[in-house]
Amino acid sequence: MSKMKSFAVGAIVCAPMLSAPAFAQDSIYVPLLTYRTGAFAGSGIHIADGMRDYLTMLNERDGGIGGVKLVLEECETGYDTKKGIECYEAVKSKNPVVMNPWSTGITLPLIPRAAVDKIPILSMAYGLSASADGQTFPWVFNPPATYWDGLSQIISYLGTKEGGLDKLKGKKIGYIFLDAGYGREPIPLLEQLAKDYGFEVKFYPIAAQDMQNQSSQWLNVRRDKPDYMVLWGWGAMNGAAVKEAARTGYPMDKFYSVWWPGDDDLRATGEPAKGFKSLNWHSADGNYKALADIKKHVVDKKLSQANPDKVGEVLYNRGVYNSMLIAEGIRNAQKVSGKKVVTGEDVRRGLETMDINADRLKEMGMEGFAQPIKLTCADHNGHLATFMQEWDGKKFVKISEPIPPMVDKVKPLLDSAAKDYAEKNAGWPKRSEACDKAS
Amino acid sequence: MDMLYNVLIDPFVMMGSAPDLLIQTLWEGLVAGVLYALIALGFVLIFKASGVFNFAQGIMVVFAALTLVGLHEMGVPALLALILTIGVMFILAVTVERVVLRPLVNQPDIILFMATFGLTYFLIGFGELIFGGNPKQMIAQELYLPQGSTDLDLFGGLVRFQHIDIAAAVIASLIIAVLAVFFSKTRIGRALRAVADSHKAALSVGISLGQIWVIVWFAAGIVALVAGIMWGARSDVSFALQIVALKALPVLILGGFTSIPGAIVGGLIIGVSEKLGEFYWGGLVGGGIETWLAYIIALLFLLYRPQGLFGERIIERI
């Protein structure tokens, strides 16, 4: 019996070691912070599948990057900041080359740690908008657009619809948002634009615990009768907002969102969701060689957790795009460092010199999937133009030409926010990292 | 002065000038209130029978709804999936009695309370393992729940009654009525009340504690299923629903942990007050007050009636 007990205790102690992925000196360790469980899993699952499948495809098809296998390990955060930090601490000692927090809440506390731990943070189109400033935040990257870019693009689009930004004067714009760091992020710019263009803003905050209980705020919408509604939701909040808009009778063609609603969020509402619009910067279909390779090398070989029908949908492709940036960062790091097995420091340099032009997109089998993007030491974002897509009842369809961000409005705010951040965080280091020639 | 006007006068002027919006707000509050009452009822039933605050009631709502939708996605016809889900909730009740409650008989209440925490996390993990974490669409149409809405011209404005909300209010009221009659007029109901008063005394007159617990957990499971169907039809079925279920807490504080009428009246008061509060007063502080308003109302009640509206006043000799 005592032997049995010893065996049981031994098994329990050893189990975590056995389950940890084996990563050797000749591999590159890429942890993926994902949220496949909890209230936000509706978006998290598809993004996680896309991220994982693209990198797995590189392993299967090409034997990794530059001949070096990638070791992938997911850590479940549940979109919870505490768990996210735990994940970070758990993977830190395994020499990760890049961290993808996949939550603005998790990103913010990781920003000060990045320079200390020498692990670059890739917060793709989320996180702290000001971290686009590479001089202040050399270890943080948030391509291809900040939330402030996104908001300015929505306002710009509304201006076009009205016949000019000056025509927004006197209009009422409702802003329904997740009452958390993520949803509050664009508010300073929204207030600034309201002042500049003379429109009125009505705020409708939704607490995380009321994501599926939004009826009070939609009663407010019904009373206020905004000319346009802008949604800044996450997870279950997006689908519930679209449903409530339909229940309230708010015209769906006046309902706009930042880039996070997925196909499932709209599908749940059915026919009344037709006309809903959101920003995007990449394709929402699966007709690309890279995606065909994912199907061939990953999905068909049962190496994916994704439902095959979801491959090519908005949020799956969002995950693919994220991993494309990771892969290009690593590939560039190999180039600038001359090493095959790169470190976090090398990948920081790789991301900073990243230049995915049209030829490179073609080489990757992603011609037309997204626009070219180039990062520099000063600009860690790229501030890409996005486009508006509309839900046609079955899928998202691109309906606009590229909408550039309002650089003249966003840039001064970004610069000032970056400066403020450095001043408020006593001892924030001045950039000492050299800038590589390629950038 | 302006502030006083905005708090004390302006909201009532708005109510008078746009009565259609007032009726719509009251209706939304009543529907939410009935659903809160339904969830609170699950807590009350278990608390009455075992003195345990069942923290797992919220996840039971999600688990029941997920099972129903998950079975349907696997190809089971909707009505059969409903029957099978009721069966699953019965198996859950038996399992909880055998595995969780029976070994903990006579342990302090806090131990049983902590055990329901464990049950919560088990059901989250088990649910995600079987059905995945993806939000699912409630099969409202397949269950013959009405769709669409009726718009009425009232007081010069439009008041919209969603048919699913009317169905939710009617079904929830029926379930509450049936359970209230069952637990007050039947032999099992009397046995439940005896168990609630004293486990030992109930055992001494031949009442089977285990049987009562199974019945009560099964009833709480049915209530959870109905709440899950109705709330799921309003939004979707996801693990975020368990947070909504926590809205039953202020309802319980208000209505008392042991009173079925308390759960109903408390639910309605909380539902209506939070909608009115958010709509007419929320804007004064930037909105989003319904998250905490329910707790403030419940706390104010606690100051005057610590046992809740209909809760039993506990007097203990020292």
Automatic annotation (TrEMBL), chain A:
Leucine-binding protein domain residues? 28-393
SUPFAM superfamilies, per the entry: Periplasmic binding protein-like I
Keyword rRNA-binding assigned to the entry: answer is: no
Signal sequence, start to end: 1-24
Which controlled-vocabulary keywords does the entry list? Signal
Q: Does the keyword Signal apply?
A: yes
Q: What InterPro entries does the annotation carry?
A: Leu-bd (IPR028081), Peripla_BP_I (IPR028082)
The record ties this protein, via Gene3D superfamilies, to: 3.40.50.2300
Q: Which domain of life is it from?
A: Bacteria
Pfam families in alphabetical order: Peripla_BP_6 (PF13458)
Which family does the similarity line name?
Belongs to the leucine-binding protein family.
Q: What is this protein called?
A: ABC transporter substrate-binding protein
Q: Which organism is it from?
A: Microvirga brassicacearum
Source organism phylogeny = Bacteria, Pseudomonadati, Pseudomonadota, Alphaproteobacteria, Hyphomicrobiales
